[in-house]
Amino acid sequence: MPAGAEPLIVPVLRSAAEALQAIREDLGECTRCKLHGLGRTQIVFGVGSESADVMFVGEAPGADEDAQGIPFVGRAGQLLTKMIEAMGFRRDEVYIANVLKCRPPGNRNPEPDEIATCQPYLFRQIASIQPKVIIALGAFAARTLLETQDPISRLRGRVYEFRGAQLIPTFHPSFLLRSPGYKRDAWDDLKLAMALLARQPPASAAPAE
Ligand code: URA
Known about the structure:
Layout: H1 16-27, E1 47-48, E2 54-58, H2 63-68, H3 75-86, E3 95-98, H4 112-129, E4 133-137, H5 138-146, H6 152-155, E5 160-162, E6 165-170, H7 173-178, H8 183-196
Parallel strand pairs: 2-3, 2-4, 4-6
Antiparallel strand pairs: 1-3, 5-6
Helix pairs in contact: 1-4
Bound molecules: uracil.
């Protein structure tokens, strides 16, 4: 090495935890889209195991998530927890994140510019965790990941490839709370995910009520 030249040390291999931490630090107190000025309390980044085989992707934080800083802790979150447990996992064994990291005012739908701004952070979360299976909860998650505008009713029921993971779209737990008749279809989707993971449902498992 020539005298005075500094060795160039580039950290190539980072743990998933370090990679997630770096993404969180990049987000900072994000002001990249208008949601930061529309009443959000805090950024809701994601929760769970950094080495999860299964990752759930929802839409956006609601009031409870905005207050606690944790995804899926309200009523829809309680149903999601039952769905996770029916698959034979504990909630802390999977990873849960949303397309948007900030709560849209009044729980309105995410807008295209907000999705476009936040999408790279979700994609980086997925690249860090490298889950085997991604379960996209509802139209916004499925459409963002699959880059389509198809309705969730058309997208669900089959397996897609997403950057090395297998992606299964299913109904959003909030929709299932409003329309419990679709829980059977959602359970079929979760069973598809379990088959991909070569996992049997626990003896007590039943469609989440
Ligand atoms: N709905 C979502 O999509 N995400 C949450 O975190 C809570 C409710």
